[in-house]
Each structure stands twice: as structure tokens, then as C-alpha cells.
Amino acid sequence: MPKFAANLSMLYPEHEFLDRFAAAARDGFKGVEFLFPYEHPADELAARLGDAGLEQVLFNAPPGDWAAGERGLACLPGRGAEFRAGIAQALAYAEALACPRIHVMAGLAPAGVERARLQATYEANLAWAAEQAAAAGRRILIEPINPRDMPGYFLNRQDEAHRIVNTLAEPALQVQMDLYHCQIVEGDLATKLRRYLPGGQVGHLQIAGVPDRHEPDQGELNYPWLFELIDQLGWQGWVGCEYRPRRGAVAGGTTAGLGWMRGQA
Ligand SMILES: O=C(O)[C@@H](O)C(=O)CO
Ligand SMILES: [Mg+2]
């Protein structure tokens, strides 16, 4: 089986955020990821990681005004200063948490702006961020996200993400391949895994059941078979469990839903 990381933004909703580290460790996770750590001091998060014996494997750079609907800044013309400040903040957290990977969200394509302009902005920002990350010993990841969950999101397809990584040729820039989004947008997951994993351009995998983003033990994907394929392909990285537990915030609900990870599904 691959190594699984618990996504603490989605798993363990029955616990306060800071208590999710210990809960994940009790369930046998060795790594965790989350979306945005910025409302918590980095040293508090580092202490929770240390107490639980966990590795931080991924988190996201600041996405702009999330509450107002923003989903990243990287493709947005005129937001460069804010983008760069966000990367600096993310790199400081990455240092404190010893986290090697930062996901940089593209943003929603604004109406009335030519796609070519957004693309140029996106690529210039990513190149800058990747160079900063390389200097700090970190990597920047870009993730194609499905437009059903995030209408208007700028980056939707695996081939677009890989084309950007090839074009920019920044060693610290990689793709975050979320199989949930990939199945919704394009399918043919086994072919995509065989195409992209051996090339070294994928820096992180994530999973969830499709179509409802619950445990990967129901729905249209055969995850046990995909896990074997991922192992056969020699994947040494993490697989983030980024799903909403079917039992919601019921006490013990996340743990009860982890039978799939223990081969009990
Ligand atoms: O797939 C997702 O939704 C996440 O990986 C993310 O970073 C943006 O919400
Ligand atoms: Mg994801």
C-alpha cells in the first residue's frame, strides 16, 4: 500500500483543528497535510506535529480572500505584490514545519480578461515562486481542480499542468495529481498514472471517492486496484486523503471510516 497522509482540513471534523494532529497519529498516519495554516502560529503547529510524531507533507500558499470566493492569486493580473507576499509567508511556514511542498492555487479566471494574459501572469508568477522555493529547499506544486467543485478555476487538466511544468523547466515546480479531480474532468486514471508518475513531474497524489468526495471505498473508482498500480509504478511519495468523512462530525466517525486503509473495506 502507498503511504497515506491525513488531510486535516477535511478529516477529523469531529475535533478542533489543533486536536486533529493527535487524532491522525492515533489512527496510524505518519504524515499530514492541510489547506491553510495561517490562523495558527507556526510554532504551535510545529509543536503539534512534534508531539504527535508526524511529518507535514503539504499545505497551500495563501489563496487571496477565500471567504469572498477567491481561490488563489497566481493567474490574476495586478495582484503580483500580494502573490509574492503570500509565497514569502508560505515559505516561512514551510521552514517552521519542515514541509517540503507548497501548493499554489491558480485562481478563478476573471470574466472579460483574455486567457493568454492570465496564462502569462500565471507562468511568470509560478516561475518566480519556484525560484524562491528552490532557494529555500522547497517545491511549488500546481493542482488541476475540477470545475464542478470550483467553477471558473483556471487549471483543470493534467496535460495543461504538465505543459506548464515542461515550459517553465523550473526544477522546483511539480504537479499535484488529485485523482478525485482527474476522474471528474478527464477519467482514464490508470493511463494518466502510467504516463505521469514515472516522469518525476508529479510531486504529490491525493484521493477521494467519486462522485461525492467521501471515503475511497465507494463510488465509481476501484481504489484498491489503483493503489496496487501506484505501488507497481514505484511511487515513493505521499498520497493525501482529502475527503469528507461520510459520517460527518460524528465522534469517532473519521476513524470508523478508515477501514479501507486497513484493508477492511
Ligand atoms: O483538491 C483540493 O480541493 C485541494 O487540494 C486544494 O488545495 C484546494 O482546495
Ligand atoms: Mg486536492
From TrEMBL:
Keywords: Isomerase. The lineage of its organism: Bacteria, Pseudomonadati, Pseudomonadota, Betaproteobacteria, Burkholderiales. This is Hydroxypyruvate isomerase family protein. The active site is at 143 (proton donor/acceptor), 242 (proton donor/acceptor). It holds the Pfam family AP_endonuc_2. Transmembrane segments: none annotated. InterPro entries: HPT_OtnI_isomerases, HyI-like, Sugar_Epim/Isomerase, Xyl_isomerase-like_sf, Xyl_isomerase-like_TIM-brl. It comes from the Bacteria. GO terms for molecular function: hydroxypyruvate isomerase activity. One of its GO terms (biological process) is glyoxylate metabolic process. PANTHER family: HYDROXYPYRUVATE ISOMERASE, ISOMERASE. Residues 21-262 form the Xylose isomerase-like TIM barrel domain. Belongs to the hyi family.
